[in-house]
């Protein structure tokens, strides 16, 4: 190769490297922008969920008050009506907590079982390998 060809190849390699670096920087900027937009949307969604949860709590409070008033109108004493509604809501909450704990335990077991099986399989393969 002549000196001109070496210089041309060197220049071509340099330009290619610079172009690749520019491309990578542009891709990283695009990725950062996309992640930023996604995070903003996630935080907006979380904020909306929190607002909805607050509205649900207020609505449940109003409904509980209406239930107490309805029981009072049906002849129960206000204290008895309040206790009945309060205990009913407490029982409902306890049932939901028990259900969620059950579902969490099932999810945990279903996640752990494949890992345990994988460990046993790895030990069996290791034992078979050591025998040979």
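^ structure tokens above, recovered residues below v
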């Amino acid at each position: 190769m002549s000196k001109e060809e070496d210089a041309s190849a060197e220049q071509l390699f340099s330009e290619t490297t610079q172009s690749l670096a520019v491309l990578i920087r542009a891709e990283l900027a695009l990725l950062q922008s996309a992640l930023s937009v996604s995070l903003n949307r996630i935080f907006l969604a979380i904020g909306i969920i929190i607002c909805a949860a607050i509205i649900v709590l207020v609505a449940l409070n109003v409904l509980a008050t209406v239930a107490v008033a309805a029981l009072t109108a049906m002849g129960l004493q206000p204290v008895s009506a309040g206790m009945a509604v309060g205990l009913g809501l407490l029982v409902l909450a306890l049932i939901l907590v028990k259900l969620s704990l059950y579902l969490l335990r099932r999810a945990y077991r279903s996640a752990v079982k494949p890992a345990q099986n994988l460990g046993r399989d790895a030990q069996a393969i290791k034992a078979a390998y050591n025998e040979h």
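The helical segments are 3-73, 78-131.
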